[in-house]
Amino acid sequence: MSRLFGTNGVRGVVNRDMNVDLAVGLGKAIGTWLRGGRVAMGTDTRLSNHMLKSGVASGLMATGCDVVDLGEVPTPALQLYTRDRVDLGIGITASHNPPQFNGIKCVDGDGTELVRRKEEQIEEVYGSKGFELVGWKEVGRLYTDDCIAGYNSAVKSMVDRDIIHEASLKVVVDCANGVGTYSTPGILSDLGCHVITLNAQPDGTFPGHESEPTEDNLRDLISVVKDTGADLGIANDGDADRAIFVDDRGRFLHGDRTLTLVAKNEVERRGGGIVVTPVSSSSSVKDVVEEAGGKLVYTAVGSPIVAREMIRLDAIFGGEENGGLIFSEHQYCRDAGLTAARIVELVARKGPLSGLVDALPRYALDKRGLQCPHGMKERLMDGLKSYYAGEQSDDTDGLKLIYREGWVLIRPSGTEPKIRIYSEAKDTATAESLGTKHEKEVSDTLSLLVGSDRQKT
Ligand code: MG
């Protein structure tokens, strides 16, 4: 059976990859695998949501599952509801992808994203068409419910309302015409912030900008923060599990800055503890966590992996540099609502965001990629492991080489025919020279492999 689920569920272009037959089939496969029970379903704001949701729901009911339709919801709200109320959650969303895309993503009964092993079991049922349809009396029913109010009040209960209220902060929120519209602005205004919204009309054509919160897509947010003299700007991605920030000086903050800031704050606030992040994260996270008396643990890239490791180690906090932060006090998934509330609380308590961020250790990152066919990736990585055998390294995900002046992570892309090379150092020139040197070494190793293949044929 070929792989259906990628790193973020099943995803593709609507009516090409993501069609109604796939939706019904997957609904039947998930229901057969689950063997009955209650499944909550939520969507982002995409135009194809009704089609895909109805298809999946029909398949689920045919196999005896009851379906609770939550409508348009932020992904972390669906995850919280799933953890507390039902046996499984299904999100119809393509997160930050362009509007012609959509996806189907499963949330396990504990609110975390489904692990790969369980996805494989569902793929197995789907591939073999071993659907177990129930008799007419056992066919599932469709219910509706709301989970947004519950999520929003849960988030508000996690922070100090009085301190935020007293600070009376001005916050600009860019919802990207996505489901963040239902969570972030309301949470912050209830906490006493003066909120200005951008792109806060749910619209699956994404008329404001595409739903990935890149610096380029957030130009309006940056200018409104500057023009209104706001204390900060916040942007969500399309399904509102990630949050990216703009400081009071109108500077776009890369996700690693807020990851570092919040990691520091969580360890200080909790008086120590374990923080989990992928090997690709900036060393600034390790620096602040250790300085505050905490311990940093590295994992492979991917938020479900970070979340599972947090549960295993009883970690206090975890996250990735893309703005997906996980707070164990609340739930083991990326939680943009709580990320926004925490950072607002931090600014209310300790002063301007620009000052908080500038006080953090800073590193330069060089990112580059090299074409490499999917079929060659494993052999190339083996070749590189031999080539760099004498160096200090970490093979948690790809190959991370640790040098005195910084580190280099060489890692095959999960989706593209590429090898990615990330180099981090204290300054840009050193990061670039590490990048150039390793790009050449990776390229030479690849050429050797291709050359030896040619000789064999
Ligand atoms: Mg997302």
In short:
It is built from 15 helices and 20 strands. With 457 residues, it is an alpha/beta fold. The mean pLDDT is 96.
Task: Describe the model.
This protein has three domains: 10-146, Alpha-D-Glucose-1,6-Bisphosphate, Chain A, domain 3, CATH 3.40.120; 151-358, Alpha-D-Glucose-1,6-Bisphosphate, Chain A, domain 3, CATH 3.40.120.10; 364-456, Alpha-D-phosphohexomutase, C-terminal domain (TATA-Binding Protein, 2-Layer Sandwich). Helix content is 40%, strand content 23%. It is built from 15 helices and 20 strands. It has helices spanning 20-34, 49-62, 75-85, 116-128, 148-156, 161-167, 184-190, 219-228, 255-270, 283-291, 303-313, 336-350, 353-358, 377-387, 428-456; strands at 10-13, 37-43, 65-72, 88-92, 101-107, 142-144, 170-174, 194-198, 232-236, 243-246, 252-253, 273-278, 294-299, 317-319, 325-327, 364-371, 393-394, 399-403, 406-412, 418-425. It has a six-stranded mixed β-sheet with strand order 1-5-4-2-3-6, with helices on both faces. A five-stranded mixed β-sheet has the order 8-7-9-10-11, sandwiched between helices. Helix 3 crosses helix 5 and helix 14 crosses helix 15 (428-456). The longest helix has 29 residues, at 428-456. It is globular. The model has no long low-confidence stretch (mean pLDDT 96). Magnesium ion binds next to loops.
